[in-house]
Design brief:
mainly alpha
Length: 97
């Protein structure tokens, strides 16, 4: 619903994208070794996983519409690792192509 073009400029979409961008920034910081993964995982694991599950369909539709598979890919990687109770490998290499 929210990924449809008629909602593109709504305040709700702005709020959703802002929250997802916050998670994306945290994911990048963790993967780059700038942020402490153990700290964030203990504090934020449930929220990251829950919000990724709730927003996954939205993100997938945005990726298709904009033809950009990399949108929120760091968040996806973080949530999927934490869901499996794995750590994110600290790397500057691109993990999704």
């Amino acid at each position: 619903m929210w990924a449809s073009p008629e909602h593109a400029n709504s305040p709700q979409i702005t709020t959703i994208k802002n929250r997802l961008n916050d998670y994306e920034l945290i994911a990048v910081g963790i993967r780059q070794g700038i942020l402490d993964e153990n700290f964030y995982k203990q504090w934020f694991r449930g929220s990251v996983i829950l919000n990724w599950r709730k927003s996954k369909e939205f993100v997938e539709k945005i990726r298709i519409r904009e033809n950009r598979d990399e949108i929120f890919c760091e968040l996806q990687m973080l949530a999927e690792c934490w869901e499996r109770d794995q750590s994110v490998q600290h790397s500057s290499d691109k993990h999704l192509k």
